Amino acid sequence: MAARVVLREITNEEGNRLLRIVRRTSGSVVTWRRAQIVLLAAQGMTPPRISEVVFTDPDTVREVIHNFNRDGFDALYPRYRGGRPQTFTLPKRQEIKRIALSDPQDLGQPFATWSLAKLADYLVAEGVVTDISHEGLRQLLHAEGVRFQAVRTWKRSSDPDFEPKRDRIVELYAQAEAGEAVVICLDEFGPLNLQPQPGGKGWAPRAKPKRIRATFNRPHGIRHLISAYDVGADRLYGHIKKRKGRVEFLEFCRYIRSLYPPEIRRTSCLTTSAPTRATRSASGRPTTTSSWPLRPSTRPG
Q1: Confidence of residue 86 (pLDDT cuts 50, 70, 90)
Q2: How are the residues of the chain apportioned to helix, strand and coil, as percentages rounded to the nearest 5?
Q3: For the packed helices 116-125 and 134-143, what is the interaxial angle rounded to 10 degrees?
Q4: Using DSSP, how many helices (H) and how many strands (E) does the chain show?
Q5: How far is 49 from 28, CA to CA, in rounded Å?
Q6: CB count, 10 Å around CB of 169?
Q7: Across-strand partners of 186?
Q8: In this predicted structure, which of 23-27, 116-120, 247-251 has the lowest mean pLDDT?
Q9: Is the pTM of this model over 0.90?
Q10: Long-range contacts formed by 42-48: CB under 8 A, 24+ apart
Q11: How far apart are CA 227 and CA 238, in angstroms?
Q12: Measured in whole angstroms, how far is the alpha carbon of residue 125 from the centre of its chain?
């Protein structure tokens, strides 16, 4: 049985130096990770427990501790060979970009947002790169068009079959863009109306801007827009209607079907707006709470 790897006794000066390495935001990620391993070992943590904290394997932790016991702080700094700095190939850059744009929790990480330190540490731990500095990672992501931005909210569907339906729609979009299918996305928008919009600037007392009336009349009623988008042809169609009921929606669908020869197989993607729900109920098809594609149809209308 192999002997247990134990960190040697470190002085206060060595402990303070390790803290300075761990706390600074610049420098080599490899040095930062090794200093973190040694500092955790100095606190009495075992190699398996340290490996869980720094997201690496216990053998790597034991090797870092063993090297530090033998070489001291020289073991924290990677021994690079001479030559130009490491460059990343296009596939490697795309892999780094993909990981940066992913959700850390989907990759098994216990946090919700990547920082430069966490991302660089993950790339080294997973073997994507051997070493990369925080500034080098920032410059690489900047060149790839990735920016560090505030997280915004979004709504998630409550439909238990949302993911299969979403994947089916994405598959249809890919087929349409490749010219292998005709995919039509239908939706409605309304009510549309003319209303005064605040605009322009003018002189006014402080914190008392000029105002316009927010109430207005609609003497000519309102309108609704029923539209369709051909994904493959990148073409948009739309009709303005006074109503957006089932009759108007089916009329527009028949118009869209008349634009294609009868032998062309067409797939329609609809949302769960009121006209489409009424259309599905009248046709005997089930309704749902998320966007989903209808079955391909070869019949007009």
Answers
A1: low
A2: 45, 10, 45
A3: 100
A4: 10, 5
A5: 23
A6: 18
A7: 228, 270
A8: 23-27
A9: no
A10: 42/7, 42/10, 42/15, 42/18, 47/5
A11: 4
A12: 22
* Token pair listed for 205: 């007392």
Locate the DSSP E strands across the chain: 182-192, 223-230, 235-241, 266-270, 292-293
Neighbours of 178 (CB within 10 A): 9
Would you state the structure tokens that stand for residue 217, as one six-digit string? 């009349």
Establish how many alpha carbons lie within 13 A of residue 79's alpha carbon, considering only the half-sphere containing its beta carbon.
5
Burial of 85 (0-12, 13-18, 19+ CB in 10 A): exposed
- What is the per-residue pLDDT for 1? 44
Examine the pLDDT at 122 and tell me if it is beyond 80.
Answer: yes
Tell me if the bond preceding 191 is cis, omega within 30° of 0: yes
Give the pLDDT confidence score for residue 96 in this predicted structure: 92
Report H helices in 7-115.
12-23, 29-42, 47-54, 58-71, 90-101
| Exposed e or buried b per residue across 132-166, where buried means at least 16 C-beta atoms within 10 angstroms of its C-beta | bbbebbeebbeeeeeeeeeeeeeeeeebeebeebe
Q: Which residue has the tokens 């006014």?
A: 204
Q: How is the chain split into domains, by residue range?
A: 12-76, 96-143, 162-191+222-293
CB under 8 Å to 92, separation ≥6 — which residues?
A: 128, 129
Q: What is the pLDDT of residue 33?
A: 87
